[in-house]
Amino acid sequence: DGQGSRRQDERIISPFLYHMVPNEAHQYMGAVRLFQHFGWTWVGLSAVDNDKGDRFLQTMLPLLSENDICYAFIIRLPRWSYVEELIQLLLQHWNSYAIIIQKKANTFFVHGENPSFRVLRILLFLAHFTELPPLEKVWIITSHWDFTSMSLQKNWEMQTFHGSLSFSVHSDQPLGFQEFIQTLNPSWSKGDGFIQDFWEQAFSCSLKMLMEDEESACTGEEKLESIPGILFEMKMTGHSYSIYNAVYAVAHALQAMYKSTSRRRSLDKRNRLLLQNVHHLLRNIIFNNSVGDTIHFNENRELVAGFDITNWMMFPNGSVVRVKVGRLESQAPSALIRDLKPFL
Q1: Is Protein biosynthesis there in the keyword field (predicted)?
Q2: Of the candidates 164, 145, 143, 173, which has an alpha carbon nearest to the alpha carbon of residue 328?
Q3: If you write DSSP's letter for every residue of 12-36 in order, what string do you get?
């Protein structure tokens, strides 16, 4: 299939590439299992307008047909990188909003990326100034698409997505992480321009020394917990958890390598063996991280893990609550959903 051939190409082109999330194709069968569980047999599909979206549709459409599920429409979501492209994209894709409204399907399965989500949010924002009715769909979203917003959009309503389900990269909370987040301050991060840029955008203030308008100056005492959850979450997200595990996996491989006298001698002679040694150890590594999750890779160098099924609750004040309502076991045959709980 398309996903399998792509993974094979990756192994040839990048033999040292490891995936810190399970193969995304498991989510497609997971979505089919959700459709069957709730009796949703008439659904809409959306895919980002690029090669990834093409592969998604090539895999998803046969799955729907094989499981007696029909699709009412297919929407291709745009990607944009520059502001000057935005107006043209909005004009081109405005009809997509009308199509979604007109169709009777109540379930909308979306495969997208963050840039395409931002375009959709702008469409939803502009729809408030028209006579078009609000979207009333159950959204099911793949793990690539999260609900983080640009600072420009942080106060825009998110009620449209209230009750959405997403396949989220599994995450947990390492001990001390939330306390660490609460200590973040732009003043102690010298040389870290990211935190300073984030601080200015999140709190709509400036850290520059010379200010014409002192009221818009950052004090450095702003509280991250006051930021709307749609812009910044105080808990570790799945993407951050993947980075956390990647660092620990490499650290465990390096530790194992330097414990071996024979390997250390070979490194003294030929430093170029470092990468090969780490690669060999990563392929066979298995350990428990600080929260007790087991970390190891399969033969395709993909993390052996499942996806959390997350229910998103969006409130008018901008707060966001995400609740784990189930789990997709990606290693089980034909995708197995466990512990599915009632949700909004």
Answers
A1: no
A2: 143
A3: HH-TT--BSS--THHHHHHHHHHHH
46 within 8 A of 75, measured Cβ to Cβ:
yes
CA 245/CA 195 separation, integer angstroms: 22
Burial classification of residue 213, based on how many CB atoms lie within 10 Å of its CB (0-12 exposed, 13-18 middle, 19 or more buried): exposed
Tokens of 95: 């009809």
pTM to 2 decimals? 0.77
For residue 76, the cross-strand partners are 47
Q: Which residue is listed with tokens 């299992």? A: 33
pLDDT tens string 87-138: 555 556 566 666 666 667 788 898 877 767 777 777 777 777 776 666 778 8
- Among 305, 342, 320, which residue's Cα sits nearest to residue 26? 305
Contact 276, 263 (CB under 8 A): no
> 74: which strand partners?
45
Classify the C-alpha dihedral 62-68-71-77 as positive or negative.
negative
- DSSP string of 277-307, one letter each residue: HHHHHHHH-EEE-TTS-EEEB-TTSBB---E
3-state secondary structure 161-213: HCCCEEEEECCCCCCCHHHHHHCCCCCCCCCCHHHHHHHHHHHCCECCCCCCC
Residues 74 and 64: their CA atoms lie apart, in Å, by 13
- Interior angle at CA 119, CA 166 and CA 127, nearest 5: 100
Q: How many CA atoms lie within 13 A of 93 on its CB side?
A: 25
